[in-house]
Amino acid sequence: STPEGKATSDLTHYRSEANKLRERLAGGDPTVDPRQLEQLDGIQLKRSKIWQLYWGNLKSLEEEGKVKLPFIPDYSSNNAHVFYLVCQNKEERNNLISYLRKKGIMAVFHYLPLHKSPYFKDKYQGNPLPNAVRVADCLVRLPLFYELSEGNVERICNEIKSFFG
What we know:
By secondary structure, the protein is mainly alpha-helical. About 55% of the residues lie in helices and about 5% in strands. It has helices at about 5-25, 35-40, 40-65, 90-100, 130-140, 150-165, and strands spanning about 85, 140. α3 (about 40-65) runs parallel beside α6. The longest helix is centred in the first third of the chain and has 24 residues, at about 5-25. The protein is globular, with a radius of gyration of 17 Å.
């Protein structure tokens, strides 16, 4: 299938998952374990460490001009919700995602511009939004979850570095 077909398939999946989440939250989510809330600080600390590990391992790719990494201004903080990199173009992004999947790493595109969402479809007045489209076409979200080990983060980073040579 074409990259466009794949993106459409991923978009359909994204919408489906968003609808499922909306339904779960509307009814109160029985899968939320109260113990997780008690461990929130520890969970957040681990996610922050994973985020920093990604950033430290991949900053050389940004310095070489191969990707863009998240930028957190000095006056701000980072909740370590997601780690991403921005490729040069959509083809490179799709090739990186495919390469990582073949290595057993689930990296995905992440960003759907609001003006392309079903909700905004009838409200969008057609103004060009090139930055939104470019980020959507080029952004890759890397795995970031509590159970992810430092060793796996290192492996993911090494595979990304191998891809970019």
